[in-house]
Amino acid sequence: MIGELDQSSSIGEWLEFIDHITSKEIELGLDRVRQVYKKLNIDQYFPIVMVAGTNGKGSTCAFLESIYHSSDYNVACYSSPHFFKFNERIRINKIPCLDEVIVDAFFKVNKARESIPLTYFEMTTLAAMLIFVENDIDIAIMEVGLGGRLDAVNVFDPEISIITSISIDHQEFLGSSIEKIFKEKSGIFRAHKNAIINFSCDEALIKKCKDDTKAIISKINADYYIEEENSKINFIGKKKSFLNLPLPGLNGKIQLQNLSGALRAVELMSKNFPVTQNALEKGIEETNITGRMQFIKKNPLIILDVAHNKESAESLNQFFKQQRLKGKVRCVFSLLKGKNTPDITNQFMDYVDEWYVSEIDSPRASKADEIISELIKQRKDIVSYEFNTTQEAFSKAYKNSDVDDNIIAFGSFFIVSEILEDISICQTQKIQ
DSSP character for 224? Predict the structure, then answer.
C-alpha cells in the first residue's frame, strides 16, 4: 500500500505512510518545508497568532481559540500532540477536522513535495495550513512544536507572536542556556509586528531581542497585567482594558498568566477583530484543555497533568498541595528519555507515599527500572512499584486507594492519554 495512497485511502493509512517515508529523527530547519510550501501556492489571507514557549502554549492557544469562537469568528487552531485521534491537532471552530478533509490535504502535500523529504511534523503542519486556507477562516491560532526559529510552523507569517515561558528543556535541540533557548523561541518574532513576552525576562535579553528582531515587544507586568479582585479578574492593557472577567475554568494560578498573554493578543487585534464583553466572558469560562491539572474523580481525588519538566512540575506541585490532601498520595509516573528526573520529581518527594512507575508506549520511553533508580537516589526509603504499562500502574494505584486517598499522574502527554483511554477503570464521575 505504501506509495499508492490517494484521496480514497484512510487517515490511518496516510499516517502510517507519512511515518514510513519521513525521518524518525527531529530535523530542525525550514529549507525543505519552504520549498513544498511554495509549490503548494498557498495564499495566507488571514492573520496568524503564533505561540511558542516551554510551558503554557496549549493553554494560551485554547484561550484564544475559545474567545474568538465565542465572538463568532471562523477560528482555526493547530496544536500538538493529540491525545486520542490525530484530528484533534487541526480544528476549525473548536471541531476537529473530518478524516476526508485531512486525507485530501495529505494527498496534495505529498504530491507537491515530489522527492523532497519532510518530517512527520512538517507534513502535518503544511496539511493544516492547506485546510485552513480552503475553509474561509478569519483567524488562525498556531502552536509551535519545538523551539521556534527552525520549527515548521515558522514558515508562515504571524501577525502576532507570543512566547509563554522559557525554561531548560529539549537541550539537545535548543541549547543548554536560557539565552540560547530564548533566541530560538524569539525566532518567531517579525520585524515591525507585535510580539508578546508573557513571562518575567531579563531586560538585557529583551533589549537584544528588540535589536535582533526589530519586533514591537510587549512585556507582562510592564505593558499589560492581570489583577484578581473578588473572584473576578481585570486585564489592564496599554490602550484597552477588559474588566470584571470570570476566573478561568482551567486549574492552577499559572493559567492567569497564560490568560494574560492571550488577552494582550486580543487587545492588539481588537481593531480588526473586536470582541464583546459577553464573548470574552463566555470564551474564558468555556476554555478547556485535556491534561492540564485535570480533575478526574473526587473520592479518591484523581488529578492528571502533562507536566514533564521542572517548571510545569512546580506549577502542578503548587496546585496539588492546595487541595487539602487527606489520606495517602500515590503517584503514577513515567518519562521520556532525556528528561532530568530529579528536576521533575524532587518537589513531590516529601509527601508522595507510593510511586507507580510504568513504561509508556513510545519508542522514546525511559525504562521503568531506570526511573525508579533515579527516584531512590533522591530518597532511599521510597515505596515504588514497576509496571509494564501505564494502564496497569493506574489500575493498581486506584485499587489500592481508599476514598480519602489521592492519585496524581504526570510526567508525559503519554501518561495522560493512556489513562484517559482506559479511564473506565475508576468509573469516572464529574466533580461537583
Answer: B
Q: Do domains 11-285 and 294-425 have the same CATH topology?
A: no
Mean of per-residue pLDDT scores for the chain? 91
- First and final C-alpha spacing in the chain: 50
User: Is 65 in contact with 41 (CB distance < 8 Å)?
Assistant: no
Residue type, 334: S
User: Which residues face 175 on adjacent strands?
Assistant: none
Residue of higher predicted confidence among 259 and 230: 259
Given a cut of 80, is residue 157 above it in pLDDT? yes
Q: Kindly tell me the sign of the dihedral angle through the C-alpha atoms of 294, 144, 228, 200.
A: positive
Q: What strand order describes the sheet that includes 160-163? A: 95-96, 90-92, 75-78, 139-143, 48-52, 160-163, 194-197, 216-219
Residue 410, classed as helix, strand or coil, is: strand
Residue 431 scores a pLDDT above 80: no
Say what the alpha-carbon torsion angle 9, 144, 348, 250 is, to the nearest 10 degrees.
-90
pLDDT higher than 70, residue 163 = yes
Its CATH class, for the domain covering 294-425, is alpha beta
Biggest alpha carbon–alpha carbon distance for the chain: 61
Does residue 81 have a cis peptide bond before it, meaning omega lies within 30 degrees of 0? yes
Which residues are within 8 A (CB) of 106 and not within 5 positions of it... i.e. 6 or more apart? 5, 11, 14, 18, 123, 127
What amino acid occupies position 105? A
pTM as predicted: 0.89
Q: In sequence order, which residues have a C-beta less than 8 Å from that of residue 174 and are 6 or more positions away?
A: 146, 147, 180, 181, 184, 185
Q: Identify the CA nearest to 122 among candidates 234, 22, 193, 259.
A: 22
Q: Residue ranges of the domains in the chain? A: 11-285, 294-425
- Give Cα 179 to chain centroid, integer Å: 22
Burial class from Cβ neighbours inside 10 Å (0-12, 13-18, 19+) for residue 325 reads middle
Asked if residue 98 has pLDDT above 60, the reply is: yes
In the CATH hierarchy, which top-level class contains the domain 11-285? alpha beta
The Cα 233–Cα 228 span in angstroms is: 4
Q: Are 163 and 52 in contact (CB under 8 A)?
A: yes
Length of the chain: 432
In this predicted structure, the answer to whether residue 322 has a pLDDT above a threshold of 90 is no
Element (H, E) at 190: none
pLDDT at 353: 96
Q: Residue 97 has what DSSP assignment?
A: P
Is the Cβ–Cβ distance between 299 and 426 less than 8 Å?
no
Q: Specify the residue for cell string 508506549.
A: 361
